[in-house]
Every structure is written in C-alpha cells, then in structure tokens.
Amino acid sequence: VQLVQSGAELRNPGASVKVSCKASGYTFTSYYIDWVRQAPGQGLEWMGRIDPVDGHTKYAQKFQGRVTFTADTSTTTAYVELSSLRSEDTAEYYCAGSEGTEKGINSWGQGTQDTAPE
Predict the structure, then answer these.
(1) Of 9, 78, 10, whose CA–CA distance to 47 is shortest?
(2) Which residue stretches of the chain are H helix?
(3) Per-residue pLDDT for 46 more than 80?
(4) Could you give the CA distance from residue 30 to residue 66 in angstroms, rounded to a whole number?
(5) Under a CB-based contact definition with an 8 Å cutoff, are residues 105 and 117 in contact?
(6) Cβ–Cβ under 8 Å, residues 21 and 34
(7) What is the rounded CA–CA span in Å between residue 91 and residue 39?
(8) Are 105 and 96 in contact (CB under 8 A)?
(9) CA–CA separation, 53 vs 59, rounded Å?
(10) Are 95 and 35 in contact (CB under 8 A)?
(11) Which residues contact 43 (CB under 8 A, 6 or more apart)?
C-alpha cells in the first residue's frame, strides 16, 4: 500500500486548500481513506473518512460544514478540501488507508504541510 500526497501549501486566511492523496499498490476500493491532521505541538486529530466505493463520507463534528472529502476511482486519488481557513488550521495533513473504526488505520501518506498565515 502506498499513499502519496501533494506538496506543501501556503494559504491566506479565509481561503481554501485542497490536498490530494494518490493511492497505489492495492485495490483503491478495499479501504476507506481517513484524513488526520497534526497541528504544531499537538496530537493527531481525526477529521473523517470517505469510502471510495460509493463516496460516502463521515466527518468529525468539528469540521462539518468546512471540509469536503472526495475520491476519484478512475485515478485512485482522494482529496480533502478545507475552506474558510484560520490560523489554527496550520497543520500537517495526512491521508491514511483505514479498515474502519474497529480495525483502524493500516497505512499512511507522507503528510502535507499546510500553513495559513496569521
């Protein structure tokens, strides 16, 4: 399983950012794609997940209304888009292959640093 994410981004406050996660080495629809972030000096924060089979999404309550997950089975790529960026959104963003809440994450992307200026 390999998950390769797009590169670092700088954003202005109030803008949006979109990060991609290209999956390879397995059948894309076999696992959920979870999105997790880690702000400087903080722990991991689960943002939600998408099922590439049907595009069904589950968002953590904190991010509902501001985040959108999509998955393109033709390119085996998942995306996260976060809008109305705030300074506290500065974080390392990770995609992860997941078998759901009980079995958890089995693989990680390398991370994408996204910085929203103060």
Answers:
(1) 78
(2) 100-103
(3) yes
(4) 27
(5) no
(6) no
(7) 4
(8) yes
(9) 17
(10) yes
(11) none
